[in-house]
Design goal:
2 domains; Chromosomal Replication Initiator Protein Dnaa, Chain: A; mainly alpha; globular; 7 helices
Length: 144
Amino acid sequence: MRTYNDKQIELEAYQYYLSQVNRLIIKDPDNSLNRQKKSAALRKIAELQGSLVDEDKYISEVANYFGIDAQSIYKPDNRKRSNAEPRLVAVYVLKKITGKSDLQLAIQFNYKNHSSISYAVKQTENLIFTDPNIRKFVDHIFSN
């Protein structure tokens, strides 16, 4: 029989809450209150998992490197290369640093599903392999 401590129970409660908020977001994607609830739930889940890191710092570093606004990294509707590459790199960095699940990152970056995160990670690995500047940048982030 599995035993639970208070932290595990709270974590599962927040994960369930997050799934319910995601359903609301699917029904009404423009509702900013639901997005705020989602962000708060993700932060709490990360905190409970013991992997809370300053994600905004990494997002800002990626945005500064590519010369774009940090908020545009979260916008899925802009598929220009100037926004797509920073988005891919940001997903890759947060995946490796936080250890978040693909589903959590898909929600955070407004992807349609978790498989998009797997694809983004593979694309970034290809970029790192082919572009020495991006490789140096990613190495720099991981060394800090």
